[in-house]
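Appendix B, Record 12. Input sequence as logged:
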Amino acid sequence: MTGLSTSPRLLKGGLILIDPSSGAVLRVITLQYTPDLLTRSLQPQSTGGSAALSEPLRLKGPPVETLKLEAELDATDQLEFPDQHGAVVQVGLHPQLAALETIVYPESGALIRNNQMANAGTLEIVPVQAPLPLFVWSPSRVVPVRITEFSIVEEAFDINLNPIRARVSLGMRVLNVNDLGFGDKGGHLYMVYHQSRERMARKASSATLASLGLSNLF
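Logged structural output:
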C-alpha cells in the first residue's frame, strides 16, 4: 500500500501450512513481493488403453495441475531502518528463507523419535507426516499442493555473509481428490477450487459460430 486512503489494498500470495488431520492452521507464509509471473500446466486425465479408442472423451479424474513461480526477497529497505528491524540487521533474510525451506524438511523432533524407535528395535517406522501446504493466490484460488521443486539464488550479502537479496523458485503439484480423497480436509479445499473454476467459466462471455466465421457445423 502507498499510504493513501484511496489506494487499493494489494493482496499478497503465499502458503498456509495446515494439520492434514484437523485442518488447524500451523503457519502462514506471505511472499514479500507478489511475483509477476505464475506458470500453470494442466495435464488431462483421459481414459487409456482400448477405452480411449471407443470413448476418447471420458475423463477419469481432474487434470494434473502444476504451478511454478519465482519470488523475490529483499532486505534493503529494512536495513535502512536498523532500529526497527533488528533481526534483519543480525541475520538478514535467513528467517524468511528458513520459513520456506522448512516446508520440505521433516520436523527434527519426529526424526529423533523415529531414530530412537529404530534403536529400540521397532520393525516398522512410519515416515514423518508433514503439514499440508495450501497455495494461496487470491481468495478464489486456495489449493492443496505438494512442493516438487525448490531452489534459492542468494544474490547479495551483508558484511557477515547473511543473505540480503534472494530469489526463490517454487514448483508445486496441485493435490486433487484422487490424491487426497473426498473426506480429507485438503480434498474438500480442492473441490471448492474445482467448483470455483466452473463458476468462473460460466462468467465468460458466450461466443457464436458466426464469430468464428461459421454459419453451421453440419
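The two ends are 55 Å apart (CA to CA).
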